[in-house]
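This section describes the prediction task in plain terms. A model, or a person checking by hand, is given the sequence of a single protein chain and must write out its three-dimensional structure as a string of tokens. No templates, partner chains or ligands are provided. The sample shown here is typical of the held-out split.
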Amino acid sequence: MDPISLFAQVLHDARRHLKFNILEIGAREIHAEEESFYRLLTLFPVSSIAAFEPDEALCARQNETPRDGVTYFPFALGRTEETRAFYNTEDAMCSSLYKPDGEVLDRYNNMEVARVKTVSSVNTTSLDHFTSGHDLDFVDFIKIDIQGASWTYSRAVRLRCKMYSPS
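The expected answer:
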């Protein structure tokens, strides 16, 4: 059993009625297997996942048949509410708010998947704006998989956590 599933099972055995608010930043499905943290929805059915997928067409398809407890939102989380350039790459899983560096890609084999195919625009919203607009007083878990923006975004999350942590 993977560590997340084991953790979830231990929590379930101790406290069956817990509710978790989970953010999935970067909700594009890459593998046929479900992400392991989705097991929390089975063990704690009042929990929810707010999943962010900036590809509006994909997000609409995801919302047609979502798993119970999951809602997909067609924007990216960012520093603030704004419209930003979005770099669509040869393989969509490599697309990002940050332009891939062609010189770096040239140094490695099989990196054509990360080459920019088109540039579009996406709407971004801040974590504070999203949580206040969706009655999320707290977030228990955050999964981040956002191609190059993880470090930038995790800094913003740490600042928010520091602001709300007990003295």
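For orientation: Residues 37 and 45 are 13 Å apart (CA to CA).
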